Amino acid sequence: MRALTWHGAKDVRVDTVSDPEIVNPRDAIIKVTSTAICGSDLHLYDGVIPAVKPGDVLGHEFMGEVVETGAKSTLKKGQRVVVPFTISCGGCFHCKQQQYSACDNSNPAEKQDMSATLYGQPMAGLFGYSHLTGGYSGGQAEYVRVPYSDFGPIVVPDHLDDDKVLFLSDILPTGWMGAENADIQPDDTVAVWGCGPVGLFAIQSAIVMGASKVIAIDHYPNRLALAKKLGAEIIDFRETDVREALMEMSGGIGVDAVIDAVGMESHGFAVDNMIDIVKQKVGIGADRASALKQAIMAVRFGGKVSIPGVYGGMTDKWPLGAMMEKGLQLRGGQTHVQKYTKDLLAKIEDGTLDTTFLISHRLPLEQASEGYKNFKEQQNEWTKVVLKPGMESGT
């Protein structure tokens, strides 16, 4: 089959690889109909996520048709399913707490040591990411093997086309959980750093949850325009002192909640960020957390800090004093996708949530490397790329 494979920083290619096979009775094989490039895929593309190997098949946002099932899979051939990017068994201690992204069983035992050393506990399995997370082949491919298929995938109705439901795999529940972790109250003012796909869905979610004011922070005009269409007020951080503006927009108190949808590759020319860029390039620091530090400084005393943006290691100059002295609440984590898919599917069906407004490009899988390059280098125009296996070029 054809699949998008990683060969090094800024080097991804569509290669012919072996077809996936049923390995476990709970497995299923999915013929991929739509798959997307995620902002966190760009961390792999940039080479800042450890333990990625040449030939790894990328992609963790995908959906398709069930074509083969193991003896214990509850799926049926021909069903359309969206597959969560988190691989979860459904029966371990954490899955029973609905903490599906902390599943005890989905990361193979022989791959758990690396993440246990980094984080104190082994991570769960994720599709198409790092060998820290199991080294599973991803969904930017014609076919993919789905472990625990009796628990994770959600069957979607035929009257909803792929574009409307594809993002149930990751960025919609990630944006929703990012807003939920901000514990938004009806009178809250919420600031969101980053108007990429997760940031835009966090903005939409915060508005649906009843925030009185949502403020979007970015520097790409088109992405800020999308946020404004959703109902957010906007700040271009290259033209405005963000903390000063947020103080004015919150009556001099500071915003009630902040959401960092940027993660480990902050933009901007702040001194701390420029130092972090150098450290990241030479491998002595993993995370550029300038946006998160700015958010912590901007939130009010007793405020709430939510981190849906991805971080992988350590960061310097962490404002621990501000966190303690201001009495902040901080929540983050990989998304517990399966906790949200049923309710979010209902919100898509009844029109509460729009999931298609951010798609800027649809490409054949064969043009995936072009999609990565432009999604990375032309972020103003390329807001979200959906790849279609089998799609003819130029359609």
TrEMBL record:
Its cofactor is Zn(2+). Residues 197-274 form the Alcohol dehydrogenase-like C-terminal domain. GO terms for molecular function: oxidoreductase activity; zinc ion binding. Pfam families: ADH_N, ADH_zinc_N. The keyword Oxidoreductase applies. Gene3D superfamilies: Medium-chain alcohol dehydrogenases, catalytic domain, NAD(P)-binding Rossmann-like Domain. It comes from the Bacteria. Keywords: Metal-binding, Oxidoreductase, Plasmid, Zinc. The keyword Metal-binding applies. Residues 25-151 form the Alcohol dehydrogenase-like N-terminal domain. PANTHER family: DEHYDROGENASE, ZINC-CONTAINING, PUTATIVE (AFU_ORTHOLOGUE AFUA_2G02810)-RELATED (PTHR42813:SF2), ZINC-TYPE ALCOHOL DEHYDROGENASE-LIKE (PTHR42813). This is Glutathione-dependent formaldehyde dehydrogenase. It comes from Croceicoccus marinus.
